[in-house]
Design brief:
Blueprint: H1 2-17, H2 20-24, H3 29-48, H4 53-56
C-alpha cells in the first residue's frame, strides 16, 4: 500500500511543478496506453474484419 502512495505523491508534485508541461504535451504513459489498445484492436479487426473492406480500404 505504501508503494502505491509513493508514485501518487510524486505525480501530484509534478503537476504543480510543471502544470504547463502536461497540458502542452501529455506524458508518453497517457497516449501510449490508449494507442497500444487501439493498435491491438485494429490488428485484431483487420485480419478478422475481411468482410469489412471499407475499414481496410485496400488490403
Amino acid at each position: 500500500m505504501t508503494s502505491e502512495e509513493q508514485p501518487i505523491e510524486i505525480n501530484k508534485e509534478n503537476e504543480p511543478d510543471h502544470p504547463e508541461e502536461p497540458k502542452a504535451s501529455p506524458p508518453p504513459d497517457v497516449p501510449e496506453t490508449p494507442v497500444d489498445d487501439d493498435l491491438e484492436f485494429l490488428d485484431a479487426i483487420k485480419p478478422r474484419g475481411k468482410a469489412k473492406p471499407s475499414v481496410g480500404g485496400g488490403g
